[in-house]
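Notebook, student rotation project (T.W.).
Task set for the rotation: take a protein with a known small-molecule partner, predict the structure of the complex, and write up what can be learned from the model alone. Partner molecule chosen: flavin-adenine dinucleotide. Sequence and SMILES entered below by T.W., checked by me.
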Amino acid sequence: MTINFQLMDNFSPTNRTQLHRIPQRATYEVSKIYGILDEALVCHVGFIVDNAPIVLPTTYARIANQVYLHGAQASRMLKSLKEGIQISMTVTLLDGLVFARSAFHHSMNYRSVVILGQAVEVTDLSEKQAALEAIVNHMQAGRMEHTRAPNPKELRATMVLRLELNEVSAKVRTGPPVDDEEDLSLPYWAGVVPVRLQAEQLQPAPGLSQHAQSLGIIPFSSNER
Ligand SMILES: Cc1cc2nc3c(=O)[nH]c(=O)nc-3n(C[C@H](O)[C@H](O)[C@H](O)COP(=O)(O)OP(=O)(O)OC[C@H]3O[C@@H](n4cnc5c(N)ncnc54)[C@H](O)[C@@H]3O)c2cc1C
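Predicted structure of the complex:
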């Protein structure tokens, strides 16, 4: 089933994507889900191979209502996924560590997305190039203009898979700890430690020419890593 994403504000929950546990934290809002996917850098892909489940971390990028995965043609993960098996892809942004008065109520603030579906191999060259460009630009907007594009040999060596966003859910926790009434006067610190991914000082690659070194990279904007 392909949904015309331009016409909808929310993904429709299905039997598989309906949150049961703390359902008030669910959102199916397309713009929120796209925002989480665009901000996070790493996804985890869960699938069954040789009759056993495995979950592997990898990079990805979103274009419109699709996410793209890429890797070596020899990747067991990609070779398995392109057979059309059911997969689950998940992305998590950690926003805070939630310290409660009780050990039981410690938690985390987060925004996470779960995508269910089947991936297909991208064979169209222009879509493949666009996907690879999006994956590079996902590390930093505009980076593709400051790097050498893949050559035909590199393109042949790379497999790209597309996963349509149809069965999608997001879960978002915000706010302070939720302690039990009888614990509120206990002498323990409680509250939230906000956390975020932060870029540190650049570490130039060995052998970088003086010219390249002087170029640096495009500065990250303040709300980016
Ligand atoms: C950083 C982080 C830390 C967490 N720590 C814990 C923990 O310590 N213990 C714990 O039990 N849970 C934790 N969770 C929540 C966990 O992801 C599950 O939501 C929860 O365990 C309920 O699982 P369930 O199988 O009962 O979900 P159900 O509500 O039955 O799941 C049904 C469907 O809801 C959707 N869904 C469920 N969870 C998520 C999610 N997180 N994001 C997007 N869609 C979702 C999926 O489509 C899923 O198929 C954490 C989540 C994050 C992001």
